[in-house]
User: What shape does this take?
Amino acid sequence: MRIDRDPISPQMQRSGGPCVIWLTGLSGAGKSTIAKNLRLRAMADGVPVAILDGDDVRRGLSQGLGFGQADRRENIRRIAEVARLLSDQGLVVIVAAVSPMRELRVLAQNIIGAAFHEVYVSAPLATCERRDVKGLYARARRGEVTKFTGISDAYEPPLQPDLVIDTSDCEVAHATSTLMSAFREWRMRDRRK
Assistant: This one.
């Protein structure tokens, strides 16, 4: 018996091939906002997109995991595996997750492979605290939330991300346009491979 690979789906043709855009940064840096805006822009171009938001994943797929080292690793592993599966089906996947440690992002990159594009959504801690609509930073400062990235737990910025977007000095529309331009460039480059 011979099994042929699936033909390239229309979704894969429109998306330009596997692509996972991994947005990392502190809580409140703007990852989810940029992800939602990028999704709208890409879908307007006919590109199918899925978002894996870290908060949503924690409420569902990773419900019950804590914020210790082993649980953080498992959470990122799950997100990366789902991102790879969706990307392999022809969706562009935007991950918006703090993913604070470099080794965790390397784990995600190893799972996802060449489709992985790391984007550092940068903003100073004070800016993120001002934007905190959930009050998590204030709770962490009062000691009510432990192992909170940026306050009682470390965040390791990427050393060589594919793109850095500093949201402290740009509007959402500009950040989204910057990422959309990079996304188009990555698609063109990946098509030539």
